[in-house]
Fold each of these.
Amino acid sequence: MLTLGIESSCDDTSVALVESSDRGHVVISEKTASQIDIHKKYGGVVPEIAGRMHAEKIVPLVEEVLNSPSPLESPLGQGGKNRPDVIAVTAGPGLITGLVVGVEAARTLSYAWNIPLVAVNHIEGHVHSVEITNSKFQISNNPQNSNHQKYPTSNIQYPALALIVSGGHTELIYIKKQGSYKVIGKTKDDAAGECFDKVAKLLDLPYPGGPQISQLALKGNPQAINFPRPMINEKIDFSSENEPAFGWSFSGLKTSALYWLRDHKLAAMHLNHIRLPAGFFAQMPEPPTLEDFCASFEQAIIDVLVAKTLKAAEEYKPKTVILGGGVSANVKLRSTLETALNANLKISNFLFPMNTYCMDNAAMIATAGYYKAVKKEFADWRTIKADPNWEIE
Ligand code: KG4
Ligand code: ZN
């Protein structure tokens, strides 16, 4: 099945053509227009500007994707056929100014081309992002392929547990079977990626801050500053049907980073590479560097994410653990979670997306949309609506 995916829920306009079968999902063509350079000036996404940029880009991107001159020869056998069988669009959650652009484009195409339409939840897209491949080599099930273990296709075994961490979301989701979701953990305030971005701003690092902090953290000491681990020992209440049992709070961590910089003015100058007189620290211990600050802060976030995921895995006993969303690009988070699951619970089926599919992208929307199309869960172009607060269920 060929699915045309459309994603415009935040600051990326993305369109992709994905070929799917029960053997896997191959990206035939994908084009993304990132708005990061525009929003950078404001230190975050400006909804009004985002909406206008999506509207400008979406139709040219659809045209480019469908007319891409030589679609990758697909191992699934249908490559080269450019008329999609179904259109999948992100209908929520996200910024309403962006969502409406994608939904309006998708329903217009569905009507004009007489192609069925599916509405995809953005978070469900991140869940299925771990199944995407863009190379026929990876789908060939060749056990000699060293990437095969890391980027398996169609290898989600249910029940599964997904930790989706991005700029807008931090959620733990129990997936009993494909398409059946229960949110069992949520952040009470900022999302993990948002916390990375806000602390990066305090350090005058450019937006988005997550990749900047994680890059600097590689050379720092994660024990240099003892940042708090909010709610790490929270008592888990499984009795409530309505409230997610697992919680995070990242705004306190952001505030403690702010207070640390305020209370350690000299250290903060040092950390920002402001040159202090030679021998300045001769009479006192050398303060942490910018790299140490980043490593310590990153470690605090990783510790709380991993602790809660482990507790949830212990309780729900999933066959697969999925890590998705923009923050899943964080190499240390991946390796810490992988090791912890293996060492504590002997869970070895741990999946995360190829780097290109960590951030928002239309290929993951097409992939999630395929499963809906197979089950004939179509949306009507006359009534489909963008829902900025759509809860996955
Ligand atoms: O999924 P995504 O592209 O958009 C949302 O749905 O929010 O995620 C973007 C977020 C940003 O907050 C960015 O700082 C964060 O993912 N991010 C990272 C890394 N790469 C991206 N955070 C930590 N470490 C990284 N390597
Ligand atoms: Zn996202």
Note: The two ends are 25 Å apart (CA to CA).
Amino acid sequence: MDKQKLYIETYGCQMNFADSEIVASILSQEYSLTSNEKEADLILINTCSIRDNAEQRVLHRLTELMSLKKQHKNLRIGIIGCMAERLKGSLIDNEKVDIVAGPDAYRSLPQMLGDNTYNINVILSETETYDDISPVRYDTNGISAFVSIMRGCNNFCSYCVVPYTRGRERSRNLQTIIDECRQLAAEGYKEVTLLGQNVNSYRYENYTFPKLMQAVAEISPLLRVRFATSHPKDLSDELLEVMSAYPNICKSIHLPAQSGNNNVLEHMNRKYTREWYLNRIAAIRRYMPDCAISTDIIAGFCDESLKEHQDTLSLMQEVGYEYAFMFKYSMREGTAAHRHMVDNVPEKEKIRRLEEIIALQQNLSLQSNQKDIGKTFEVLIEGCSKRSQDQLFGRNSQNKVVIFNKGTHQKGEYVQVHITGCSAATLFGEVKE
Ligand code: SAH
Ligand code: SF4
Ligand code: F3S
């Protein structure tokens, strides 16, 4: 009998994209994947709850997809991931979806879909890491892959829903991570990104994150290694030492600051101060003067004063970030901030602060890129540039996008590119033959 067809749509962070590959693998006996939702027998939406607008976008898309049921009576639609965990049975009662599965319930999907004995599983686990499952890499460029090394989060930043939607932190078996990366290298992948909400607290038996990085970096000098995300409170000198010792560990650290003000940081329960954060930045610069640093910033958190907001701007200036993800605070039910604080920065003011942060970052990114003009970088080619078939794009170790003329080069190659120009978002250059 022909397999049924599965269409997966993924929202949210890289961990969700990695999870969708695990779900595809778990369902591969019964379903083959399709990229066309109209021919699907099963549609799964892997969802994100981090901010209200992330959820609204999914609910809007869900209405569109539900209308496909008019043409296809046997079509089943499921919500999986963080919204499934947060909204649970209400998705069945209110949105009329067929299946609801939280992030630790994916192994039960074949049974849920097979005999219809139950259609919701949102039980969180303290041990599930899916470490024995080989992800189906259905949506990659064949060059770069995500590898999940841990799940969950124990940090309970007061604004954040992740510890509730993903459950307790747990690290994946080291050997299975190494085996997966080796396999990827053997299949021709040139880059792996190790994923966790706070990779610096990775611990499996006696192995810590620096040890894991070292082991992955030693698989092949041609396999680049990246990671995300680092919590500033746990960024150790030992990791910086390992990073600086291996040319194939990319010189780029995502170190979310969230705010530059100590009072706000304390209310956010981030467990570090501005001074501690700047000390970690200094350590990065000491070990790796060429390392790119990026951040996440939240504008307009509860009680944030104008002066406190300005401290965020001054922190950004002081660090000179290469890149930033910037958000306005969105209150999430059930979090400590929702229970104990008031979402009292007016919406208009939040938007104004966010715009100020974005404008500053635009300048910082441009300044950083301008400093690269005249330098030469090793670039891993990822594909054709969006603008022109005659141009290729790739990234340098610092994770900056570089565009250059194609010549005889191809996806997956490493090339030396001399930088001749830039915008705030992109470097332009010429390949040195
Ligand atoms: N584990 C990562 C972050 C994961 S969530 C870390 O701790 O760095 C990605 C980003 O979303 C966060 O860094 C934060 O900037 C933002 N974010 C999380 N909750 C938010 C909320 N309630 N409102 C606005 N932004 C939020
Ligand atoms: Fe959320 Fe904080 Fe955990 Fe990051 S470390 S996922 S921001 S609770
Ligand atoms: Fe979103 Fe869940 Fe990731 S809330 S950011 S998909 S862990």
Note: The two ends are 53 Å apart (CA to CA).
Amino acid sequence: MDKTMEKVISAQHVAKHFHTQAGSLELFSNINLDIHQGESVAIVGPSGTGKSTLLSLLAGLDQPSSGSVLLKNTDLNKLDDKSRAEFRNRYISFVFQAFHLLPDLTALQNVMLPLQIRNHAQAEQEATNWLQKVGLGKRLGHKPSELSGGEQQRVAIARSFATQPALLFADEPTGNLDEHTGEQIINQLFGLNQEQHTTLVLITHDSALAKRCQRALRLHNGVLEEIS
Ligand code: ADP
Ligand code: MG
């Protein structure tokens, strides 16, 4: 790892608990983590330990119960809504476990949307290229309901890649894909990482994907430990 690279994610004493009908649920009370630009980091661990919650906190999509998360030295929770949205548009992409595609838009329109928000001059061409790269060149006009789960996942991945973000967060990006398609997606993820220094933070149960990352962190019983 090149330690001279900019620190892009810094979690300090991060705690998260939920108040539920059954009482308070504490997922973790003191997570500390620094990630530098261009690093690739896998987060692994058993189901229900709080990996998805932690990823949302690291991406600034959710607020910690206490502690802080800085992205590029900025605490998103201290920005107003407009500045926070601008920061996200500029630097961050997130591939959710439930893909969050817009149901009334086609695959092509879903991928074009973030490009149009950024006033990309060739949004349609760029979106088409990325859909072709994930093997969906023949599904451009399909709506999410007309695509399989794995295809929807690839649309979500194309959408996250298209903006060439500085920080890419993905929650089990190969979870619904067959081995061959998963391998292609992994190659594209690491292509972005190598060519554009995209920082990757990925939750995964896929050991092939975890192994390709420079660092692997395991979340278990509220503790995040470096396992490689
Ligand atoms: P993982 O991704 O490791 O499977 P999650 O972060 O999705 O785990 O969830 C961790 C635990 O927190 C689960 O038991 C889940 O039910 C609980 N949880 C997640 N979000 C909420 C919420 N908004 N309110 C209450 N409990 C939640
Ligand atoms: Mg999860």
Note: DSSP finds seven helices and nine strands in the chain.
